[in-house]
Amino acid sequence: MAVEVAATPEVVAYSMVIGGKSVPAATGETFKTVSPTTNKPIGIIPKAGLEDVERAVMAARQAFDEGPWPRMTPLERSRALHRVATLLRERIDEIARLETMNCGKIIVESRGDVTSSANCFEYYAGLATQLWGEQIPMNGPLLDYTLREPVGVCAQIVPWNFPLLMAAWKLAPALAAGNTLILKPASVTPITAIILGEICRDAGIPDGVVNVITGPGKEVGEALCAHPAVDKIAFTGETETGKRILQLASGTIKKVTLELGGKSPNIVFPDADFPESIDGSLFAIYTNAGQRCTARTRLFLHKDIHDRFLSEFVEKARRIRIGDPLDFETQMGPVISRTQQQRILQYCQFAQDDGAILASGGRRVADGALADGNFIEPTVFDQVTADMRLAQEEIFGPVLAVIPFETEDELVRMANSTIYGLAATIWTRDIKRAHTLARRIQAGNVSINYPTVNPPEAPFGGYKQSGLGRELSRHVMDLYTQVKNVVVNLNPEPFDWYGRWPTPPR
Predict the structure, then answer these.
(1) pLDDT cut 70: percent of the chain above it
(2) What is the pLDDT of residues 195-234, one digit of tens each?
(3) How confident is the model at residue 10, as a pLDDT?
């Protein structure tokens, strides 16, 4: 529950949601969350510790083992998820503003995220009534069928780049299947996750089903991943943390879903629609200030169009309007923190040290009112080679590596040369080439003549070190349910193994 702090009316204090109640941390400790636009506090957040982890896990455990949620009819759960979607839509102005203030993405994108979150809940509200098993033909007088049952208590850890939407991606399918959960948002962007927890409560989801705890990942996140009463971990974030989660989960053989990093290629052939491929490529790298695991951070340009394409691309990139993300005219806001800003600028220096050519940007924006924020120019490096750090390591900022190519075999080799395999885009009018390359590129999501899209109806996830399992679509329901096989004896003769012992063969 949000309350105004009298001493600083612009800073709001928030509570965690545990067992259906709005509560502070057990120790009473708090921390401040700041706006990337100003680096000034906008919220006072409970700093959870091990006691809070225990409270949240036990609330979720009791709600699963003894509460009504897993035992409700699918239609009852569906109606509750529809109510969540309705409340999100009714509060779009408020929630989008909070999202923009806390993570710095432009208000146009934040409003889109609220709408997409509502869409996600509506999609899984529909799937809640479609979790059926199957009847298996048997070679004998037996009836064999399967049941799909919820996994149990799920710990869900979400990142700071899409705080509300990633929470919706996690909560909606888990709830549709009848699970209970503990949501742990990123420490720098906890506000809309708390709001979502309150909305779930207001929508009539029973106490203890949705718990939201806030605090440091090192303590809170690791405790959740190792807790013996947690049945599943779902994590979105960077790859090294994903590796640590696998280690922690192994002690109790938890089910684990990981959506991790990316270094996604964006490939343009000479026959592509030139204006559309330029505009799509701009969108693919600079939305959310490049802070997307699916950002197409490597632009592969065929040598025949390299110079012309790059010239027009750079011209348009320089015209992107950087400013206050709450202004509807702003097209790119700040990156999440001073630390991230410095990290991105360090990569820009690495690129130049490695021999890449700075075509545009590469600097901090510190003009006037933007001086207090974490703004960086849209940046383009040309003549990048596939082995450079800029082409291999995830930067998570508005920095593009342009890599020329000549042949398709050379392209495929370079496109597949990283540890990641999350996404890719191909721009070409040659339908055979497009479909052939879609098969050859090691990526979980490939778009053709379209920059990037992740609707709830389509599976999302990566190859190689980009993750385990899939988010979204019907596929994710396999990861929030477990299959139980039931066999029924239909033989009219009594079962008597020892009394009907077979005669020995002659």
Answers:
(1) 98
(2) 999 999 999 999 999 999 999 999 999 999 999 999 999 9
(3) 76
Residue 45: both structure tokens together: 């957040």
pLDDT of residue 423: 98
CATH numbers and ranges of domains, the chain: 49-260+466-486 (3.40.605.10), 265-448 (3.40.309.10)
pLDDT of 482 reads 97
Q: Which two three-digit tokens encode residue 422?
A: 């999350």
- Number of other residues whose CB lies within 10 A of the CB of residue 348: 23
Cα separation, 168 vs 354, in Å, equals 40
Residue 218 is classified by DSSP as I
Residue 64 near residue 180, CB atoms below 8 Å: yes
Q: Which residues are catalytic?
A: 259, 293
Give the pTM. Answer: 0.95
Using DSSP's 3-state secondary structure scheme, residue 273 falls into: coil
Three-state secondary structure call for residue 437 = helix
Tokens representing 44 are: 């006072």
What is the C-alpha separation between 233 and 294, in angstroms, rounded?
22
Please state, in angstroms and rounded to a whole number, the distance separating the CA atoms of residues 399 and 263.
Answer: 12
Instruction: Determine whether 279 is exposed, middle or buried from the number of CB atoms within 10 Å of its CB (0-12, 13-18, 19+).
Output: middle
Residue that the structure tokens 């110079």 belong to: 307
Low-confidence residues of the chain, pLDDT below 50?
1-8
Q: How far is CA 76 from CA 79, 83, 167, 169, 176, in A?
A: 5, 11, 22, 20, 10
Q: Which residues contact 225 (CB under 8 A, 6 or more apart)?
A: 155, 233, 245, 248, 249, 254
Give the model confidence (pLDDT) of 101-137 as tens digits: 999 999 999 999 999 999 999 999 999 999 999 999 9
The beta-strand segments (E) located in 225-322 are 232-236, 255-259, 265-268, 298-302
Count of H helices and E strands in the chain? 14, 26
Find residue 183's DSSP bridge partners: 156, 212
Query: 148: which 2 tokens?
Result: 């799909």
**DSSP track, 163-178:** HHHHHHHHHHHHHHTT
| Cα 406 to chain centroid, rounded | 34
The per-residue pLDDT for 367 is: 87
CA distance 232 to 215: 20
Rounded Cα gap, residues 256 and 258, in angstroms: 6
The number of residues in the chain equals 506
User: Is residue 222 within 8 Å of residue 59, measured between CB atoms?
Assistant: no
423: which DSSP letter? E
